[in-house]
């Protein structure tokens, strides 16, 4: 769904009609909506390429200069930590890369450039992440960027992927996630049932919630400044 956010006066207002930000879950969407206001068009896609493609299909009549895949991702290379920024800007103006470096430096947030790989399921172990990174020669992984890039290219928009690292390579993840779009806060009953069935995973989920807050705070602060440069 598109964000319904009251208009406000700020330096980003002029970007509203030219930039589309796509985030999969409420965990990712809400911090961006709060920080950016109606500076851009925001779309909550749901998790995975099928949900993402379906959400984007509802925007077929709209046109954007930039379509940005944003939110969280998992590290596929060593030395990448929770809250670091991961940027895949292949095909974009090199000036954007320099601007990104300068903004990340001003925020004291580490930044990495490279490919964001696609996976249809959670890469939950160090071994899985390392293998995926080697196979796709990628720095990070998510489940939506590939579909967003394809849609943007088809509609003659510049695709960008600007995400924050949620889990480092050495951080284990639950092998499964609650049903739905992966947004635990949307379905308290479903989440409770998931934890009861996967009691060993509950500590991991609690830890992920803390990491998510840090990652999204860094990402939101970065995007607020970066979008002014586009």
Q: What does it look like?
A:
The chain has helices spanning 26-36, 49-57, 94-107, 126-136, 145-154, 188-197, 202-226, and strands spanning 19-23, 41-44, 66-75, 85-88, 111-113, 116-118, 140-142, 158-167. The protein has one domain: Rossmann fold, CATH 3.40.50.1580. The longest helix is centred in the C-terminal third of the chain and has 25 residues, at 202-226. 40% of the residues are buried. Strands 1, 2, 3, 4, 5, 6, 7 and 8 form an 8-stranded mixed β-sheet that branches. The two termini are 24 Å apart. α3 links the parallel β4 (85-88) and β5 (111-113). It is an alpha/beta fold and 230 residues long. 39% of the residues lie in helices and 18% in strands. The chain is built from 7 helices and 8 strands, in the order βαβαββαββαβαβαα.
Distinct helical segment count? 7
Q: Could you give a short account of the major beta sheet?
A: 8 strands, mixed
The appropriate CATH architecture is 3-Layer(aba) Sandwich
- Extract low-pLDDT stretches: 1-15, 178-188
CATH class: Alpha Beta
Mean pLDDT: 80
What radius of gyration results from the CA coordinates? 17 Å
Question: Per DSSP, what share of the residues sits in E-state strands of 2 or more residues?
Answer: 15-25%
Q: Structural class of the helices, strands and pairings?
A: alpha/beta
Tally of extended strands?
8
Short description:
Helix 1 (26-36) runs parallel beside helix 7 (202-226). Strands 1, 2, 3, 4, 5, 6, 7 and 8 form an eight-stranded mixed β-sheet that branches. This protein has seven helices and eight strands.
């Amino acid at each position: 769904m598109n964000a319904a956010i009251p208009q406000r006066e700020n330096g980003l207002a002029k970007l509203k009609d030219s930039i589309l930000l796509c985030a999969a879950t409420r965990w990712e969407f809400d911090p961006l909506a709060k920080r950016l206001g109606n500076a851009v068009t925001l779309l909550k896609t749901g998790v995975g390429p099928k949900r993402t493609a379906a959400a984007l299909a509802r925007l077929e009549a709209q046109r954007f200069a930039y379509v940005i895949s944003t939110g969280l991702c998992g590290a596929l290379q060593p030395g990448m930590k929770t809250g670091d920024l991961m940027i895949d800007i292949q095909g974009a103006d090199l000036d954007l890369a320099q601007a990104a470096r300068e903004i990340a430096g001003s925020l004291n947030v580490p930044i990495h450039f490279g490919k964001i790989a696609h996976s249809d399921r959670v890469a939950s172990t160090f071994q899985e992440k390392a293998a995926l990174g080697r196979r796709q020669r990628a720095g990070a992984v998510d489940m939506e960027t590939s579909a967003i890039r394809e849609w943007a290219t088809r509609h003659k928009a510049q695709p960008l992927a600007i995400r924050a690292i949620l889990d480092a390579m050495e951080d284990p993840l639950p092998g499964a996630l609650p049903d739905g779009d992966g947004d635990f806060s949307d379905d308290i009953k479903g989440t409770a049932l998931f934890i009861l069935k996967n009691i060993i995973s509950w500590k991991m989920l609690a830890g992920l919630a803390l990491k998510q807050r840090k990652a999204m705070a860094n990402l939101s602060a970065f995007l607020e400044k970066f979008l002014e440069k586009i």
